[in-house]
Amino acid sequence: MVIFVILAVVVLLAIWFVATYNRFIVLKKRVKEAFSDIDIQLKRRFDLIPNLVSTVKGYMKHEQSVLENVTQARADIQQANGNPMERSKAENHLTDTLKTLFAVAENYPDLKANTNFLELQREISDTENKIQASRRFYNGNVRELNIKVHTFPSMIIASILKFKEEPFFEMENEEERKNVKVEF
C-alpha cells in the first residue's frame, strides 16, 4: 500500500514537472514571438523613413539638421543589434526625431498639402500605433513569464532549468512620462 502511495506521489510530481516545463517553453516562445512582432513593425517604419526624408528634402532646405538627425537615428537602430534594451533606446530616439520632423513640417504649407507626405505621415502614424500595441503585447508576455519564474512552486523548475526573467520594453525619455501641460 505504501509503495502505491509513493509511486502515485512520484507520478504526480513528474506530471507537474513536465507541465510546468512545458508552460515555461510556451511562455518563452510567446515572448520571442512578441519581440518578433515589434521587430516587424519597426522594420516597416524603418523602410518608410527614407521615402519620408526624400519627400521632405525638397521643401526643407533650411532644416537640414532635422533630416540628418532622422537619418542618424535610423542608423543607430541598425547598430542596436537584438538587445531589447538597446533597441528600445534607439527606437525611442527615432520616435523623438520623427516628432521633431513633423513639427518642423508644420512650417511648410506646401509640404503639408503634398499627398505623398500626407500618406507617408499617415503610414508612420499607423505604424507607431502598431509598435505601441506590439510593445504592450510583448510586455504582457514578459510579465507572465516573469511571474512564473518568481512564483512558488514553479520557481523551483525555473531555477533548476535556468529559466530567467526577461526585460520589459520601457520608455527611456523621462519627459514623456510627465503629464502634458495644456494651455489655451
Write the layout of secondary structure elements.
Blueprint: H1 2-57, H2 64-79, H3 84-105, H4 109-113, H5 115-150, H6 154-161
Helix pairs in contact: 1-2, 1-5, 1-6, 2-3
Level-1 CATH class name: Mainly Alpha
- What is the count of helical runs? 6
Count of spatially separate domains: 1
Profile the largest sheet. Answer: none
Global outline: rod-shaped
CATH superfamily: LemA-like domain
Under the CATH scheme, the architecture is Up-down Bundle
The succession of helices and strands, N to C, reads HHHHHH
Q: What amount of the residues lies in strands? A: under 5%
Over all CA atoms, what is the radius of gyration? 24 Å
Per DSSP E runs of 2 or more residues, the count of β-strands stands at 0
Distance between the termini: 82 Å
CATH names the topology as de novo design (two linked rop proteins)
Helix content: over 70%
Class inferred from helices and paired strands: mainly alpha
Overall average pLDDT = 79
What would you say this structure looks like, in words?
This protein starts with a helix and ends in a 23-residue tail after the last helix. It has six helices and no strands. The longest helix has 56 residues, at 2-57. It has one domain (26-169): LemA-like domain (de novo design (two linked rop proteins)), CATH 1.20.1440. The protein is rod-shaped and about 90 Å long. By secondary structure, it is an all-alpha fold.
Short structural summary:
By secondary structure, this protein is mostly helical. The chain has helices at residues 2-57, 64-79, 84-105, 109-113, 115-150, 154-161. It has a single domain, classed as LemA-like domain (de novo design (two linked rop proteins)), CATH 1.20.1440.20.
